[in-house]
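Mods, move this if it's the wrong board.
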Amino acid sequence: MSTRLFAFCGAPPILRGGLMSSPWQDEKIKPMIRVGGRRLIDFALDALEGTDAERAVLSYPSPEYDELDRRVEERGATVLKQRAKRIRQPQFLELLVLPYVLGVQYHLSEDRDYLRSFDSVLTMPCDVVLEGVDLGRMVNFHYDHLGSPEERQVTVLSKLERGGGRTDLFRMEGDRIAGMKRGGSVLFDGYEPSTQAGVYVFSRGMLESIWMAFFGFKYNRILRHVTAGTWADYGNPDNLRRLRHEPQEYVS
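Not the wrong board. Structure tokens:
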């Protein structure tokens, strides 16, 4: 089976809030920010090289993204243009943003036939830098549990320690997530903390029926793949401010 992987660019075209002062005054989008002399988009594409899959970047149809598009093509990856409009929604609905954007791209964009030719799609944000995370193992884990591409399955990349992302409480049944409580500050019986990087693998069956995501864990197979690696979230404004003032802590 083939797998379609692309790095999901979720950053706005222009960074605001004073973050674009030196050394980023010429870099208007997050994937082009340099960390340790390398751009965030290069970290994302490098992480995908360990998988047996085609690589692409979901970009925006905006002039601010022209430089990113050129960089992606130089790296031998495909550029897809996002069709879904940017949306702002309540915090409790933020888990539905990625299925929304991916669903619109999968069903309504000019890329729909292209995307439907693959049995699974791996998505990852361009502003998260993975360290010690083997995405190839995550893909293998996904397929080990996928009996048919038509099954509705989502695999989530997680780590058990806190920090580096949003920590939630999961109720697990083996590798399957059976329930979730937002936030990990208060523990509940039967639930354990798990921190997510925003990296997912969607089966074709899930993408074909993306509206089923609204019905949650009971009607869809949501799996947790645990990694011993870690990551830094540069989509977090606080991390960007720290990078500006204390760059030595974020250069690998």
